[in-house]
Design a protein that fits this description.
By secondary structure, the chain is mainly alpha-helical. The chain is 49% helix and 5% strand. The strands form 3 sheets. A 3-stranded antiparallel β-sheet has the order 1-2-3. Helix 2 runs parallel beside helix 4, helix 3 packs antiparallel against helix 4 and helix 11 packs across helix 12. The chain starts with a helix and ends in a 5-residue tail after the last helix.
């Protein structure tokens, strides 16, 4: 009898542990719903005049005078995270990844979500076109981050300096210009089927911006006149060389031009294509570059680019736990972990690359050799699916790290607009320091930033719902952008085990 009582208590304990997971998802994951919300998130990050069909309706117009100090219209674009600054470096990377998501997985998206994804891309590309509208000049940022971070106020109320940070030739900005060129080239491919005229504008501008990046080599954060505004927030710590190869690779993809093929062949060593091949994010493009270029080897038998494919293979093998070269760290719950900043930015970009590379291998009927083991495309997809499922709630906490998805998600995210009352409900201005009371509140945020993926848990799977821990609780556009592509794939292929 005693054993039966102990057994019953153990069963009850197990049920209690499983309850968050079961209540979170009802036993399954709805990838299509998550896809819809992952795209909707970008409407909450919009700067500028909001359109009548704005769905994140607790937001209002903001940043309407951006650019006036330099007599240029720089309205529009996205706030990259929970603050009110427009940092072009991560914004351009976000745009490239959104466009790549559409290029690779757009056919997996429901028509309405494909349209929404293109709208999200265009909100950024329209702005990026403005930033490169003047010859030999690029506007790289709008908003003084020091002053902005000293306030906690809605974007609709912001009264801090909207300083415009500019780089004129021959001063260097290879990183931001190279990423902008990549974004415009990738977006041209995304728009080509539906809006060829706009696609041509994007591509033509991309070639010009890439020339600026290549001729004025160096990191934008090395310019002393802007360094104080861009560092340490989006300073280029890893160098500008990868953005030159990245921009050229996207232009090669978009134009099929032999000049860009020659560029990525001839500059591979001088621009360090073999450096840091395990990294991919707003600052370091190496792993993404290698996967992107590998398509030419796998599909087109361009064997002069074999070294890029070899680097892509090496990177993929590091992600396979059974591989002799495995060195990626996973949390006890199975989440990819890399140190540095918010962790989910690593998990989402790596997941995206896993799925893209799996497609490239499958279409060319190839597998990946990792020493003594052979890795199929389906194995890469299973690793990617584990990451997606973890983020959506199949994790030790049973929490979805996407806001608004499931019944259990972060309620107190580090995000000004979400934290403060909506201007629709509280039209009176909330001043710079008046917002602190909302930041310090123990209450959930009044506005749900649907679809936002927060920085997420650390290497121990621990997550406290605390807006003060910004590395864990702050969402960013560049966490969401690659996740759009991953969700599109699994929305169409939900039953991969």
């Amino acid at each position: 009898m005693k054993n039966k009582i102990i057994s019953s208590k153990l069963m009850l304990l197990l049920l209690l542990l499983l309850l968050p997971l079961l209540s979170c998802h009802g036993g399954y994951l709805d990838y299509t719903d998550a896809l819809t919300k992952s795209i909707l998130f970008f409407e909450g990050q919009r700067s500028g005049y909001l359109p009548q069909d704005q769905r994140m309706n607790w937001r209002g117009h903001s940043g309407l005078s951006d650019g006036w100090t330099v007599n240029v219209d720089l309205t529009g674009g996205y706030y990259d995270a929970g603050d009110n600054v427009k940092f072009n470096f991560p914004m351009a990377f976000t745009t490239t990844l959104l466009a790549w998501s559409v290029i690779e997985f757009g056919e997996n998206m429901p028509p309405a979500e494909l349209r929404n994804a293109l709208v999200a891309i265009r909100w950024s590309t329209d702005y990026l076109l403005k930033t490169v509208s003047q010859p030999n000049r690029i506007f790289v940022q709008v908003g003084d981050p020091v002053l902005d971070h000293n306030c906690w106020e809605r974007p609709e109320d912001m009264d801090t300096a909207r300083t415009v940070y500019t780089v004129d030739a021959p001063n260097p900005a290879s990183d931001v210009a190279g990423e902008t060129a990549a974004a415009l080239a990738a977006a041209s491919l995304a728009f080509r089927p539906s809006d060829p005229g706009y696609a041509e504008t994007l591509l033509r501008t991309s070639t010009r911006v890439f020339d600026f990046a290549d001729k004025n080599r160096g990191a934008y954060s090395d310019n002393l006149n802007i360094r104080g505004g861009v560092c340490p927030y989006y300073c280029d710590f890893d160098g500008y060389q990868d953005e030159l190869l990245w921009g050229a690779a996207w232009l090669r993809r978009a134009t099929q031009g032999d000049n860009y093929l020659s560029y990525i062949q001839e500059n591979r060593q001088t621009l360090g294509a073999d450096d840091n091949i395990d990294e991919f994010g707003w600052e370091n493009k190496h792993a993404g570059l290698n996967v992107l270029v590998s398509k030419e080897v796998l599909d087109g038998s361009v064997y002069s680019l074999q070294s890029y494919k070899s680097s892509a293979d090496s990177f993929m093998c590091t992600l396979i736990p059974e591989s002799p070269s495995s060195h990626i760290q996973y949390s006890p719950g199975g989440l990819i972990y890399k140190p540095g900043g918010s962790n989910l930015q690593h998990a989402t970009t790596i997941t995206f690359l896993l799925l893209v590379y799996a497609n490239y291998l499958e279409k060319s009927s190839q597998i990946l050799n990792c020493g003594t083991i052979s890795v199929s495309p389906s194995m890469l997809r299973k690793i990617g699916k584990r990451q997606v499922d973890y983020i959506l709630g199949e994790n030790p906490k049973g929490m979805s790290y996407m806001v608004g998805y499931s019944n259990y998600y972060p309620q107190k995210i580090h995000h000004r607009g979400s934290t403060l009352p909506s201007i629709k409900d509280h039209p009176r201005v909330i001043g710079c320091k008046e917002g602190s009371v909302y930041f310090n509140s123990s209450q959930p945020n009044p506005n749900v930033l649907v679809g936002a993926i927060v920085g997420g848990p650390g290497e121990d799977d621990a997550y406290d719902d605390n807006r003060d821990e910004f590395r864990k609780s702050e969402p960013t556009t560049y966490i969401n952008a690659p996740f759009v592509g991953a969700l599109a794939y699994f929305a169409a292929n939900p039953n991969i085990n």
